[in-house]
Design a protein that fits this description.
Number of strands: 4
Number of helices: 10
Shape: globular
Helix content: 55-70%
Distance between the termini: 59 Å
Number of domains: 3
Order of helices and strands: HHHHEEEEHHHHHH
Radius of gyration: 24 Å
Largest sheet: 2 strands, antiparallel
Strand content: 5-15%
Oligomer: single chain
Length: 314
């Protein structure tokens, strides 16, 4: 048998093969003893094509909010990309795009002639006039060194500029140093967001799932998890498109406008998805959508602040 031919028996469980997949364990009857271009073709096929289900999944996700979740709950799953797979792939693509582009999701803009934050006499943090830009092109800066930037951000946040006094003073110093670092180099904010995305994934999806379960108790929790995965995937794809538009237009398309459009589209998508999935009247759906959104955003904000304070104290 040549290296690129399929084996006669499964390499995993030794069962006799009658097709491209093992009937005993399900392993694909193929190995790495093949030309590199065949392996690359298989990789691109699995990533881009998603076994022919990607376009069906995206069409349902964007044009029929909630339908894919309802189909998945009712057992019609083979036509779609698995929700967790698409969610992880979209998140990874967003992080890669932010790393390669010079678009800052959040950018602190302050007077360049003075620090963005200073320590007050009583040990607090004084932040003068400072503005926040979203989805903006970063100013021309020397090429970034990820290792140096990462070490610099960690040192500024954890060392607190060399202040090692009381906990309150050290925490204030770390906050001041972190704000100044982010204002001086907007690329650091994308690094912080990229490093925090995994924690966000671990927190946001379960949080929304529990909130949905509290308001729609007749459905199983697993169905709410699928709904939350699809909802966040929709938002991540929208954010990815917004970042790309700002990037190729070199900031000519205002990031604030795109963020407003994105949030409006997300809110409408969430509302329609709730209506289609849980099949309640519009009045009840609108009220529950608003309450869930407020509780969700408030909980994420509180959790984020607690994690940040805990990190700065450590």
């Amino acid at each position: 048998m040549s290296h690129h031919e399929s084996p006669a028996q499964c390499q995993n469980c030794a069962a006799e093969l009658s097709g491209p997949y093992c009937s005993a364990c399900g392993q694909h009857a193929v190995h790495l003893h093949r030309p590199i271009w065949e392996i690359a073709e298989d990789f691109l096929h699995s990533v881009v094509h998603f076994d022919g289900r990607l376009w069906t999944t995206l069409r349902s996700l964007f044009l029929r909010p909630g339908q894919m979740t309802m189909d998945w709950a009712d057992g019609r799953q083979a036509r779609y990309v698995p929700p967790i797979r698409l969610f992880i792939f979209t998140s990874l693509l967003l992080v890669i795009t932010l790393t390669l582009s010079d678009v800052a999701l959040l950018r602190l803009v302050s007077d360049p002639t003075r620090p963005a934050a200073t320590l007050s006499v009583d040990g607090g943090v004084v932040i003068p006039e400072i503005s926040l830009e979203v989805l903006s092109i970063t100013p021309d800066l020397p090429p970034a060194d990820p290792v140096v930037d990462d070490a610099r951000l960690r040192q500024l946040l954890q060392d607190g500029g060399g202040v090692q006094d009381a906990d309150e003073t050290r925490l204030a110093s770390r906050i001041s140093s972190g704000v100044n670092a982010l204002a001086a180099d907007p690329r650091l904010s994308n690094q912080v967001i990229g490093k925090s995305l995994s924690r966000f994934m671990l927190l946001a999806v379960p949080l929304m799932s529990v909130l949905l379960w509290l308001f729609y108790r007749r459905r199983f929790l697993a169905e709410h998890v699928v709904f939350a995965l699809n909802t966040h995937t929709f938002f991540f794809i929208g954010l990815l498109i917004a970042v790309f538009l700002v990037w190729i237009s070199r900031g000519l398309i205002p990031g604030g406008w795109l963020l407003t459009i994105l949030w409006t589209g997300y809110s409408a998508h969430f509302l329609v998805a709730l209506k289609r999935m849980y099949q309640q009247g519009w009045t009840a759906t609108v009220i529950k959508s608003a309450v869930i959104t407020v509780l969700y955003m408030s909980s994420l904000l509180v959790a984020g602040m607690l994690l940040l304070v805990q990190f700065l104290k450590s």
